[in-house]
Amino acid sequence: MHIFTQLFLCALGLGLLIQLWLLWRHKQHVSKHQHQVPAAFADSISLDEHQKAASYTLARVKASGFELVLGTLLLLGWTLGGGLNWLHSAWSSTTLGTLPTGIAFILSAFFIMGLLDIPTSVWRTFSLEARYGFNQTSPRRFITDLLMQTGLMLLIGAPLLWVLLWIMSSIGSLWWLAAWAVWMAFTLVMTWAYPTFIAPLFNKFEPLEDPELKDRIQQLLTRCGFASNGIFVMDGSQRSSHGNAYFTGLGKSKRIVFFDTLLESLTAEEMEAVLAHELGHFKRKHVLKRMVTMSLISLVGLALLGWLSQQSWFFSALGMQQTSDAAALLLFLMVIPVFSQFLQPFSSWLMRKQEFEADDYATEQANPAAMIQALVKLYRENASTLTPDPLYSAYHDSHPPASIRISHIAANIKSTAT
After folding, report:
1. Calpha distance 142→239 (Å, rounded)
2. What's this model's pTM, rounded to 2 decimal places?
3. pLDDT for 342-378, tens place per residue?
4. Other CB atoms closer than 10 Å to residue 36's CB: what's the count?
5. Structural domain for 111, as ranges
6. In a domain? residue 193
7. 32 within 8 A of 389, measured Cβ to Cβ
8. For position 241, what pLDDT does the model report?
9. Is residue 241 in a domain?
């Protein structure tokens, strides 16, 4: 067995064991604390709501464990089991030409992976989410979304793959630099185009009409020196009762989006506080920092792919009998998460740090007490557990646990008062 095969299996097995162990810890911790509401939330969260969140979390933990094992088995089937090799050989036997064959190979692999994901997606949507009152989508809408996503994958993915595969075969040994430039340009264009052209294909976006809330937001934007292309309400309730708010777009295409479910549960003052938190990410340059970080990671990843694509053992060690640019690209995309997963705790720590910074900014620009009230409502409405396992949360969660986050905001209130 090749040394890289051994490394791949060890990383895959170790990662699976760590993830299952963390899920087990999370399950034990949530189960242990489900019979009593944490003291900090005793006045705002009922025992029934707390136990619903615990039950929902435990159901998701069980589903995640199953999906982890299934995903590991499928990855082994695609690689060492010969799935990709068979699919590559099937397309190579055609007379389409190198580039069309490579594009067809990658797109068909993604299509099959998507088909294999449908049963678990259906179960999560129409069983788990429906059981706890969150699912609002219909089978027709679910199927329509799948068809539209597939169409977008073909419409956008095929030309992008053509460009990348052409660069890999035509530019020379430093092709990865050109590919990185293309990828960054594509990312920027998609970030600009998503809110205007893609998102409206799936949801309706209506201008915010609430005069009180609109006036509050406009004043907040003025105080923060933030310009946007509009404030919109998205019909998120057509698919789920979970609430959310976000910024999207670049430059003049930036827009603020509220889920309609969020507007139904929060007051104008609480909405202002939530928006101030999101503005904090911009004012503290978190968005720019994340874009720079991702661009550097992409550059390193493509440089690594450029080297691996020239190593015959990279293909044979992962079950491929033939080599090609398309095979190298797809193998890399499937295998790199097996090794990069061990960086997840650092990524989570960095994102939690940024969440604290955004909360600090929000307490300066809006009512911090309203921020706490909004967070409590969001935890309650989304059935988010108030008692996650600390180690599981540190490894996975991009947001601080509820008690720590709210204590941090409360401490800001006290320090301001003194």
Report:
1. 9
2. 0.91
3. 999 999 999 999 999 999 999 999 999 999 999 999 8
4. 12
5. 1-173+288-418
6. no
7. no
8. 81
9. no
